[in-house]
């Protein structure tokens, strides 16, 4: 990044050469042939347009071209029908039809359209061509900026009328960005002195220097963003055959910006703009200041340069936001040996702390997010920065697990658990604790109690718990006062991008603007319009605040994982029951949607789909009066056939289902077969005992409800996972499988997915892929998925096997 003191410095560079692929041969004919001459001017033409049965006559100012040819210093109009040119009184030279035709073809290849071909155009001026029929200011300026210099370079004589309204800045003007800082709050520094904290916002101006005068381009660029309404930026920037974006710079001049640079600049501005900045300046949240340096990269890649000036302190913070991550040493008090990727994770967390921003540790399940977090807290303790406690908020079922992990890996830290009915007396112990562990329900109930304390660090485990921004948990967690914020979640995007906004609104309030701006500028364009430019802008914006590693990339020592799809054919009475319920439910759903709309019909739709899913699992799950339900289940039979083979092979099995009632039926079947098992559901009194029973070999099968056991378990003694029924979100099922497939697993893992062929279950598996794309769009490289609509509902309610 080049910093300058004098922001009005200017320079002039030659017009960039066009791409080699578009270079034309020299048009001047050899051996004294004609020299093509062009007069570029503008005049009003009458354009006749027809729309349906009606028509209009519009007067428009458009660029026109008068073509002529010069023979030995004598000029003749291209439209002149004479075959010869009089050089002097007694000498005539024949016109070269070949050379003149070649010149015409070349001019037309640059986008000039012969007026004689436009029956709907009426023009009184002497002209042969119009520049880009149905063009716009970007097309017209593109011709001035790129075509005219190239024609001159090939020997053409081009005369531009002094009053021509689409003139462009000659050469490459000096680009400048000015960064200023807003008001800062004051905080206590070491020694009791006051120091200025980071400003509440940064101001950015972007412009060029033309003839020694600085021109602010931000208003025009932001207006383009406002007008785009979610359309791809390419539609704004790539509007001509030469691909440029033209912006007014005063005195009737335009600045042509090459399309690639224009798209890149607009993409950065899209990251930073929230619609609330004052005219002429872009005000951004401090966490987004690092994106300013992306402008420097844009110009470097496009052969240009941009200088940065303004507030020195603001520029220092901007550079700090993009500072490389410094690798830290493992804390001395940690009772574990961190793997290389875990050291990288702790280093990343430390970098966030140094930059005073929050982040999301989104590693795959089983890569040790808990251990990396404990190491991060230990580094803060050993560095003397943990002067107030770190607060960890987790699901109720994981509170004691955090306590055990701290005792195991960081016994030096003083850990206080605030939980249970007798927790009132625990709050006084916060002042003496290094770490406070509590649950989401407790934070919601005791919000006023937690408001009395300030924390060095607040950490959300399974942070997707606050994905609903209107939920009590989100509001309560966001209100906690802490210097640093961290979220742990293997699934930061489960269903839609609004969940990502909720998490980042917690760790970095203001990073993505308010919910209305985020939906308008990112979510709707990405999810509904599939706008790749907005997707790229969002990915670049959030990338510094999300760390995502996959097992296949960093835990290469893990054994192989195999996923097997097992379709089940429904027959007889079970098939008939499915079809009868499906027909009735689909008809009722259509009536509801027609009467109330899709959004207002969500609950009954889910109820109807749930009943179909229950039939696929086992007809005994369906609650229907005055109906004799079948007692046979094809999937139930397949499950026990599969289980018998796995147990005979010495395997230990995890079984997941969304329905606790289905687990009850499976439990009954295990009792009948005298198979030792453990079970974990939301009603299990002692979660730890159930886990120990399985891990220590007291049970061969572990029945687990997806909701109760999808998180917070390490079950590496199992090597087979059976998903009895598919769930909407593939990430939830992947988390469940990763209870076994994680660090510490020594044996290959096989994951079976049972589903009724041709049923709603198989169609759910198909829709899972589009749900996964939402997460991949931000954490990976895939396109965004679309929300569930009526077309998807028709697929879900389709007949068996259709």
- Measured by DSSP, the beta-strand proportion falls in 15-25%
- The share of residues in helices is 25-40%
Oligomer state of the chains in this structure: single chain
- Number of continuous helical runs: 26
Reported for the largest beta sheet, the result is: 7 strands, mixed
What's the count of strands? 33
**Alpha carbon gap, first and last residue:** 60 Å
Gyration radius, in Å: 34 Å
Report on the architecture of this protein.
The protein has 802 residues and is an alpha/beta fold. 36% of the residues lie in helices and 23% in strands. The chain is built from 26 helices and 33 strands. The strands form seven sheets. Strands 2, 3, 4, 7, 8, 9 and 10 form a seven-stranded mixed sheet that branches. Strands 23-24-22-25-26-21-27 form a seven-stranded parallel sheet. Strands 1, 12, 15, 16, 19 and 20 form a six-stranded mixed sheet that branches. A hairpin with a 2-residue loop joins strand 5 and strand 6 (91-94). Helix 5 (259-272) crosses helix 16 (532-542). The chain starts with a strand and ends in a 6-residue tail after the last helix. Mean pLDDT is 82; it is low at 4-31, 186-196, 237-242 and 781-787.
